[in-house]
UniProtKB/TrEMBL annotation:
EC id: 1.5.1.-
Keywords: Oxidoreductase
Matching PANTHER family: BLR2425 PROTEIN, FLAVIN REDUCTASE LIKE DOMAIN-CONTAINING PROTEIN
Native organism: Aliisedimentitalea scapharcae
Protein name, UniProt field: Flavin reductase family protein
Length: 201
């Protein structure tokens, strides 16, 4: 099968998201200029540089109570900071609850039954008990082609690691089983690892 996206795929569901899998989930926490905490998962997310450490996430679509964007991007534009929380399998239901489209003055931490803990280097909350959290300062927002497609880049200025996730000096993902986004409404969880040495190691 071959298709041009501009012509449509002819399938019952769009296969694009199912092709690019698995995708890590950036559980992005922000705080509005008015002091309201926000939390939302984004599967167009990844790390993009080591030195200094930098991350990105993409937001698509809009909300009626925001001007051409969503709460996360609007809050980041207003404050210049955000936090990326790592989603573990045990928090899958809370992550899903925070994905709902809620009014801008609703705190998703409260809505999902999560503890909001203040970050140390930025004026923002993080998810209490998360395996890891990356405190970020905005570096740039890039507008992409299409309606309301934007990529947010940030420099990581503070990192939280849950103590029980550090095993023999390594951050061990098998201790918490990170959640990954697949296509459609599907997810996966990391439970098994294997290692490969590069040819020049």
């Amino acid at each position: 099968m071959f298709y041009r996206p501009e012509d449509g795929h002819g399938l019952p569901h769009n296969p694009f998201n199912a092709i690019i899998t698995p995708r890590p989930i950036g559980w992005i926490s922000t705080r509005s200029a008015e002091g309201v905490n926000n939390l939302a998962p984004y599967s167009f997310f990844n790390g993009v540089a080591y030195t200094p450490p930098q991350v990105m996430f993409a937001t698509t679509g809009t909300k009626e109570d925001q001007d051409g964007t969503k709460d996360s991007a609007a809050n980041i534009e207003a404050t210049g900071v955000f936090c990326v929380n790592v989603v573990e399998y045990a928090m899958r239901d809370a992550m899903n609850a925070s994905s709902g489209i809620l009014p801008r003055d609703v705190d998703e931490f409260d809505h999902a039954g999560l503890e909001a803990v203040d970050c140390q280097t930025i004026n923002c909350a993080r998810v209490g008990g998360a395996p890891a959290a990356l405190e970020c300062k905005l570096t740039q927002i890039v507008t992409l082609p299409g309606a309301a497609n934007r990529v947010v880049f940030g420099e990581v200025v503070g990192i939280h690691l849950r103590d029980n996730c550090i095993v023999d000096g390594r951050f061990d993902v098998t201790t918490f089983q990170p959640l990954a986004r697949l296509g459609y409404r599907d997810y996966s969880v990391v439970t098994d690892l294997f290692s490969l040495s590069r040819p020049d190691d």
